[in-house]
Amino acid sequence: KRPLGDFLILYRINAQSRALESALQKSGINYKIVGGIKFYERKEIKDILSYLKFLVNPKDSLSLERIINIPPRGIGQETLKILKDRSMELDLPLFEVIKSHKELDLNPRIHNALDNFVTLIETLMSKVSELSAYEMVSFLVDEIHYYDYLLRSYDPEKAQEKIENVKELMGEIRKFSEENARTLTDYVLMVSLRSDIDEYNASPDFVTLMTVHNAKGLEFPVVIITGLEESIFPHFRSKDNPIELEEERRLFHVALTRAKEKVYITYAKSRYLRRGYLEPSRFIYELPEDAVDFVGKSEVETIIEKYHFKEKKRGEFEPGDLVHHQIFGMGKVVEVYEDKIKVNFFKVGLKTLVLEYAKLERVE
């Protein structure tokens, strides 16, 4: 039996860690994220969860303190201190004091900001009993314009990463709410309990999690590379950029070579908030066949049949063949390469397609 410290779990984007962390927690396996922050400790996740916690429990003043100026609405620390002092003086929940802010000697601009905040919270609270947990978080994110806030506050790449994290959280909530129609209150309770258990568990033996970027220079006996799906690894930004695609391929090589003894590669058939069937990464079928052992025979046979891991499609087409494509329509094959095909489509002209993904049909 190997110690947990022998295992390294790698992922391409930070949003992937949520599902991995949840699975490890459910199994009672200790883990540590290196070079990053645990999913539920990330600022954007704390922001959304604080809103949800407060909506479920309006007496949760700590959550209220976090969200009162997120996104920024002109309610600063000085105003918050006045409100908190008043709350302690009257022994009232903070939100009750905020609702009666007209009694305080504040700047008219701040009174207006507090009015708007109270209206927002009351609007959100009115929806809690009407909407499912997933519908509620979707409504919340839209109502507070949270994505716009992230795009204004961070550079485009960082903002997109944070948006992906929020979408991952929404995906978890949707899955949770679909299981026995569980409520927002149930979800908030589950997250709170999980957080308490995580803090209690302090074993020195743990599985290491990190992004591929952070793994350079490290080696572990066993490496698990997750998310080998098109648009995840390689990342969707490399789709139409050969230079970035080559960088993704190099990153995959970095991931593979972190292992001293064994590498496990996984992919998901589906991900919440990503529509349709996910195609396995092209990097999987670029691996040498004699170096790969498949686990889960029926699944693998489907992959091999659908994506032709062992047999290239190159021999199926010849220059001059008439073919049909779902999007581009009818065309004539101009040239066939090792893993690509050039077709002159009658409507859109010349296109070079990857054989494994082109899904071309020969027209007899």
TrEMBL record:
One Gene Ontology cellular component annotation held by this UniProt entry: cytosol
GO BP terms in the entry: recombinational repair
Alphabetic keyword roster: ATP-binding, Helicase, Hydrolase, Nucleotide-binding
Any GO MF annotation of the entry: hydrolase activity
PROSITE patterns the UniProt entry points to: UVRD_HELICASE_CTER
Ranges of residues in domain UvrD-like helicase C-terminal: 1-217
Residue ranges of coiled coil: none
Name of the protein described by the UniProt record: ATP-dependent DNA helicase PcrA
Phylogenetic classification of the source organism: Bacteria, Bacteria division WOR-3
